[in-house]
Design goal:
The protein is α/β, with parallel strands linked by helices. It has helices at 13-24, 41-58, 69-76, 87-107, 124-138, 152-162, 174-185, and strands at 4-10, 27-33, 62-64, 111-114, 141-142. It has a 5-stranded parallel sheet, sandwiched between helices. Helix 4 runs parallel beside helix 5. The termini are far apart.
């Protein structure tokens, strides 16, 4: 019997390497790189190339969505000063999950999900709620998950180091980048 087809939103290569491998046991997996939040454009290009590298490594197709950082900035502008895990992040999750649900529905996937819940800086419950909403709206099942459980994040860090993947020190958006830079200046290490 054929495996169900799932479209998996990929935010970065380290998270994708762990989650796409994990899901590959149960599903026919395709990645979906949709990250208009990433700033600046050279950072976006670097993260996309690393996602392509993971795609080749795992033999998993990768669909690349259009990059529209100006739109993302307009939509999230009023939440610019929110901390990570604040309302700006909720809007960001929604923008990316909506694009993933639309793509999954158009292409006839059985389900969709995201690797974002692997990160300790992301709110799995909020991601899952938003995913269910867009799944219902677009007629495609959302696979709820909290991939950081069972040491998922630690496993992803170990895997990404073993494969020499680029590990960014901020979520992707300009506000997160600015906050990480401020923390480094104060003697911290990014996030």
């Amino acid at each position: 019997m054929a495996k169900a087809r799932i479209l998996v939103h990929v935010c970065c290569a380290p998270d994708a390497l762990y989650v796409l491998r994990l899901l590959g046991d149960e599903f026919d997996v395709t990645g979906f790189f949709s990250n208009s939040n990433i700033h600046p454009a050279p950072e976006y290009a670097l993260r996309l190339e690393e996602a392509r590298r993971v795609s080749r490594l795992l033999g998993v197709p990768l669909i690349e969505d259009a990059y529209d950082n100006p739109r993302w900035m307009r939509v999230t502008r009023k939440f610019r000063d929110e901390p990570e895990k604040g309302r700006r992040c909720d809007v960001c999750y929604a923008l990316r999950l909506q694009r993933t649900a639309e793509a999954a529905s158009r292409a006839g996937f059985d389900a969709f999900t995201t690797v974002m819940s692997l990160s300790p800086w992301k709110k799995a419950a909020v991601i899952n709620r938003i995913g269910r909403l867009f799944g219902k709206r677009h007629g495609v099942r959302f696979l709820e998950a909290d991939f950081k459980k069972k040491d998922g994040f630690k496993k992803s860090v170990d895997l990404s180091r073993a494969h020499g993947l680029y590990r960014q020190d901020y979520c992707g958006c300009q506000a997160s980048r600015d906050a990480a830079a401020a923390k480094r200046r104060a003697g911290g290490t990014g996030r």
